[in-house]
Predict the structure of Citrate synthase.
Amino acid sequence: NLSTVKDSKGNITKYIDPGYLNTVSGHTRVSFVDGEQGILEYRGYSIKELAEKSTFIEVAYLLIYEDLPTIQQLEEFSKKIMNHSSLPIELRNIMSCFKNDAHPMGMFISAMSGLSTFHPEANPALAGQSCYDDPYKRDKHISNILGISPTISAAAYRHKNQKEFNNPRDGGYIENFFYMLHHEKGTDYQPHPVLVKALDVMFILHAEHGFSCSAAAVRHLASANTDVYNCIAGGAAALYGTLHGGANEAVLRMLMKIGSKANVPAFIEKVKNKEEKLMGFGHRMYKCYEIRPKIVKTIALKVFEVCGREELFDVALEIEQIALKDPYFIKRRLFPNIDLFSGVVYKAMGFPPEFCPVLFAMPRLVSWLAHWSEFLDDPNRKITRPQQVYTGHRNRKYVPQCDIK
Ligand code: ACO
């Protein structure tokens, strides 16, 4: 379906590929995706097996460093991450100045970008073009970003609820995140182990997906030698969109608007008439029912045992049932994606809809770091600069339209 650009003699000089459906921008060893068969492997391991047997931090190590960690490597990695989890006071003050009803992703992206101002040693303009060549220095930034992301996210959550920020404490990555979200002075907050496990598995499922829109954005930024903090902020900005990681929030809002199972058929008709889009359905890569939404459904049931059944889950199930049998979706090979049920899980855990994209960004930044690091090591890397076909005016005569003197 590529349209072509021809020269005056009719020779094809360029192909136009909107959305890069057919354009490969590089090699990767981070994950394998086969959308026809629904296969997703992180560094060669099936996502199903990782979700069953691994932990998020182990998977983070695997994605970034290519192999599963030994117990000693895992301990060192976890320790380094925790050592970098404190929010600089100045950044804390900046976050306090956001409006309380600011979208948490706006706060997350701004804080990530703001972190760059504390790390001149990560800025190639100041520290030299080779400032990431030393693996030790590169690792420091990786630990820093992984360590501070739950602190920034929890601060955004607390700020929205007009509550004081909590400092991180020792313990597991997910436990500490829950603690920073919910701890109140004078209490001894302990997160529920079922919810900790559920969020850990959700994070594994969301940690990587090849050259996704956001990972491609990170690689794009890295190609210009942008510092790693702004690369990650840029990845988060791409993720924020409702067609990508913002879809979990959009699904929840859609489910709330539909309201009940009885209203689903009428909504589906609107989708087929192109008056609405069915959020949580369709994927650029998958042309079959992939495994991640199926695993999210099983996680939902475990979360409901602790938090109570979320009514919107039944609305989502009804959508799934109807759409999977409908010729509109069958013909276009549209299936549930990971976002159809993830927002419902997060809502059951007590998160508001607008926080759901943050819960996607936190694990996905592992992917961005892995791709950033891989991209830097690519001997064939070049600044990313797509070709264009200019269709605007040429050689216009300047006629002043207003008197600016
Ligand atoms: N609802 C209704 N129709 C859809 C949907 C949907 N969710 N997704 C695709 N279609 C239709 C399109 O309208 C188009 O129909 P047409 O042939 O009549 O014009 C056809 O299916 C092909 O769709 P494209 O937009 O060309 O597919 P593309 O691969 O470019 O888009 C995308 C993929 C963006 C994910 C799309 O399916 C979508 O918008 N889904 C809803 C948003 C969403 O859930 N995003 C999360 C994706 S997963 C992730 O990033 C985490």
DSSP finds 18 helices and five strands in the chain. The radius of gyration is 23 Å. The pocket of acetyl coenzyme *A is lined by residues 19, 243-245, 247, 271, 277-284, 332, 334, 337-339 (CB under 6 Å).
